[in-house]
Model the fold of this input.
Amino acid sequence: MTHPIRAMIAGTGSYAPPRRMSNTELESLVETSDQWIRERTGIHERRIADDSISCADMAAAAARSAMELACCAPEDVDVIVDATITADYLLPSNGCLVQEKLGLFNAVAFDVVAACTGFVAGLAIARGFIESGMYRKVVVIGSERLSSLTNWSDRTTCVLFGDAAGAVVLEPSENGSGILSTFMKSDGRMSEWLQIKVGGTKHPHKREFAWDGSDKIAMRGTDVFKVAVKEMGNACLKVIEQAGVKPEEVSWVVPHQANMRIIEALTKRLGIAPDKVVINVDRYGNTSSASVPLALDEANRAGRIQPGDLVLMTAFGGGLIWGAALVRW
Ligand code: UT7
Done:
């Protein structure tokens, strides 16, 4: 039986900085409690990068470990896609910094700015490159140093975020495994619901800037929550339908780790059993574009995901933008 060329995940990798920040530690920064954070979000702790670890450092570490697992030589990498909203610099891209750090000099590197959906967007881009025959080996990374953009005096957001990176190596497969379907959608009418107002070219930092938190992440959490459950659910159903499978055939759901209650509502709507859902929001919080590949790597290295499994990934973030990908492992 012949199969179409698909983009298969040949290796996964991740990196999380060693420093753990507990909920109790946050109690000394803002008026919150360990109990509130656990009950409303499912988060117990998050990782915070110290000054010596940049976003590109984390991205490179995750990519390196994915390449090792995929037995991918540096000279074989054709494309590096780094999904991030916290790149080391506005210019050049984080992708080019990763290229330099890992010596991937035969590749083209660039960044994708799609907030928490960035990694899923990267998968969709890589799928197009590989299925069209344009490129063979694509490294897709999600890397975030969100602690740099967190407003540490806003209790409605600072308890949520953490730093990390995750990555995969994609290559062509002809045995039926690989990405079966992808879906993405955005709605810019809700762009102000999750935003960093100051620091771009429209409202640059000024020397006499009076700090009011507007150069940090601000979010209308409850509104975002509702759209997240609805649209991640729709995106998942779309990729399941496109692939011609049924929700009950899904082996693993790897959802964006924003909030345990969002994950529970999503999987309940899809009718997928809780023991098929990969969860690590308790240990890392919301790491934006790193969230899905970090959870995927943990599940893969723990031997939970096996060849032939159907793996459903989905994410949602500022833009607003959301998406899903269904992969035959
Ligand atoms: O990754 C990108 C997408 N992001 C998300 O998907 C995040 C989506 N949103 C959420 O996860 C949730 O909306 C939050 C966790 C951000 C908030 O949970 P919520 O159940 O929507 O709470 P809420 O905003 O309605 O706040 C409930 C109460 C409020 O007090 P009052 O007005 O009822 O007196 C808040 O002021 O909880 C208060 N509150 C807190 N209390 C203690 C908000 N944050 C905190 C806090 N500690 N950290």
Remarks:
- Residues 6-176 form a domain with the Peroxisomal Thiolase; Chain A, domain 1 fold (CATH 3.40.47.10).
- The chain is about 30% helix and 25% strand.
- The chain has two domains: 6-176, 180-328.
